[in-house]
Amino acid sequence: MPDRIWVRMGDGERVSMTQAEVKEDLLMGTRDAADKGRIPELTREELDQLFEIFADPNRIVAVSPGEEVITTDDGASGIMVVDQPDGGTALPMGYFNAVLAFERICCADTAGMGHYDYSCKPVKSIINYEKQRYYMYSQATTIPLIYGTQPNLGLYFQPDGPFPNAAELIPRGKIEEARRAQEMAAEALIEDLVFCARELYEVGCDGFNFDTSGSAGDADFYATLKAAAELKTIAPDMAVEIGMASEFVLGLHGGIEYNGKRLAGMFPHEQVKVVEEAGADIFGPAINVSTTESTPWNLARAVTFVKETVAVAHIPVHPNVGMGVCGVPMVEVPPIDSVTRASKALVRIGKADGL
User: Fold this and answer.
1) pLDDT-above-70 percentage for the chain
2) Distance in angstroms (rounded) separating the CA atoms of residues 353 and 317
3) Could you report how far apart the first and last alpha carbons of the chain are, in Å?
4) C-alpha–C-alpha distance, residues 201 and 197, integer Å
5) Is 315 left (phi over 0), alpha (psi -120 to 50) or beta?
6) 146 by DSSP, 3-state: which?
7) How far apart are CA 228 and CA 235, in angstroms?
8) Is the pTM of this model over 0.85?
9) All domains of the chain in start order, with CATH
10) What is the DSSP secondary structure assignment for residue 354, as one 8-state letter?
11) Are 12 and 24 in contact (CB under 8 A)?
């Protein structure tokens, strides 16, 4: 085993650390998660396993045969189409061919598609186009095809939407006005999410992914949960996945509740319980990355949260393994050495059901 180990920082910089430094960062990372989430730290044996994953001299690491998990995504096939600033390859092909290539060349377990903006509000006005597009894609694919959209409550505030902007009201001390604005916006978002998902279900949609939920705080997460619960009564055969925007639900409202539980301040192991109550089928925790800390620190922290989330969950848990979350550096094109180490650790130690 080498005396120094090459790892990444949270911003993607490649650095070398001594074995002792890696072990220290692993310990500090799990302790940070345990302290913030009030959950158990990783055991000594688990920390040793995580150290071995980082100490592996191969650029790419993997789980052993038989330990593989399935993957879901938020339109990952789009990387073949979009330009380099968005982390894509800008191949001269359309979205339809990208989905087929994702299925037949990348051998994906599921495929995701959505509007280029990937937010609910713009989809509503073009839902007939999206229904036609989904139907065409689904006739050509064999694997489950999931339609994804970000709830994105922020688009419902002025100047983009009709409701007063809570982010402007709060600094002015207008707390109650900001709360009412968020509540009204949430109701409009619920209506739009259910409308879009219901329309897609009419053309046989296999699954609906509420992606980056809670990006605008607890009212955003509330709208997602309410929409998911209503959707499961309308379309019980359509799978619902809820992927989070952050490990911690921001309390921009502060008092909003779901089934008597305050959403502000929830960590992943608490988020999954209300997601279950809403009737969702898959939960995707997102553990934030600190760009100034190493990948051993960040990944140990992510695995600690995911392990506890899986332990209390009764539905599959698919951690978000992308840029800036769950131990993957915050860069447009995440390095494969970090991505595979994060994937292996989340499955082997965190016991994730999928990625």
Assistant:
1) 99
2) 5
3) 29
4) 6
5) beta
6) strand
7) 10
8) yes
9) 70-294+308-338 (3.20.20)
10) B
11) no
